[in-house]
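Feature request, filed as a ticket because there's no other form

It would be nice if the structure record came with a short human-readable summary line next to the tokens. Right now we just get the raw output. Example of a typical job, pasted below so the devs can see what we mean:
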Amino acid sequence: MRRNPGFTAIAIASLGLAIGATTAIFSLIDTLMLRRLPVRDPQQLVELVSRYPGEPDNNGFWPRVYEHFRDNNHVFSDLIAVSPARFRVSGDGSDAQTIDGEYVTGNFFRALGVGAVIGRVIEPVDDRAGGEAAVAVISWSYWNERFGLDPAVIEKRLTLDGATATIIGVAPPEFFGVEIGSGPAVWVPTAMEPMIDHPSRQANGQFMLGLIARLRADVTIDRARSEMSVLDRWRIDEIMRVRGANSDPLWRQAKPIVPERLIALLAGLFGSLGAALAALGLYGLMAYTVARRVHEIGVRMALGSTRGAVVIMVLKAALTIVGAGVIVGLPLAVWSRRVASAMMEHLAVGSVWPAVMAAVLMIGVALLAAYVPARRASRIDPAVVLRDS
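Raw output as currently delivered:
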């Protein structure tokens, strides 16, 4: 390898790039395929999405549309609504901070089959317009970070952008909401929006809700799509009246809640191709190295080296290259995960196992690629080598 520094450098760089790329791919697979929503029967959940010609898919509906769908459909056992928010939180003697949160309908936790580890969750009675109860459920991580897992957190008060809410419960540690990779710190009823937002988005018609439904056991997505298209005709008619006859939307409702899984499958395919190319490069380098060292290996075997010792010698040389590739690849792995996170806002970057798995995979692939030249080297006939030389 010292005699061919350029070739060796290319092999190390190729392995480093492969580890970095594979880490980003494992991050996608970890987030979009291996993780499932930590709720009851997540495969029954569907997302209501509308599509207008020339515009991307949209899951944003007015509250009155949500109520219309909820009260008149026959295909969903539950229909919940969520609206993301950012809250400036103060109170409890801690420094003020800005956190992610969500406005949710009163049936949110019940429909998902999620309870509270302490206290209780938001109920429909908490989400009535004009109600006096201002309540909040906090996440396990926020309970840990802000309150140190203090059980006395129940009945404490949080000030959310000037509105005071009483903490009534803590969500389970595995629950992060209905969007993989997200992490709301607090959930509050949608009825609290006019108390928190100034001016109120509900009052000016800009409070939009993402709708997620649970299919009834005997209902298919096609049947749900057909019924929702009929139910939504009144809204389509209103849009056509305002926008004109050429604005008729093309509906694609009841779409699976994690449509990015296809992206993860494609990423896995390209990741496998990248690993194969890296293995091919290492195989070529080790085969070339063995060919250049035929005489040396023949002499070693003539002096008593066993075939196993020759195999180990070649694999050690391969491990040296792989080790250097891992050292080069780990910084690239960190960078690639950040790039993947920036490209897909769902992607959580807290887990370290994708980088570990990428390194382990590439080490395994590299050793397999080096084993063939190592076996070939161990079968060199020292008598033939010495005779030819």
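Something like this underneath would help us a lot:
The first strand starts at residue 45 and ends at 47.
DSSP finds twelve helices and twelve strands in the chain.
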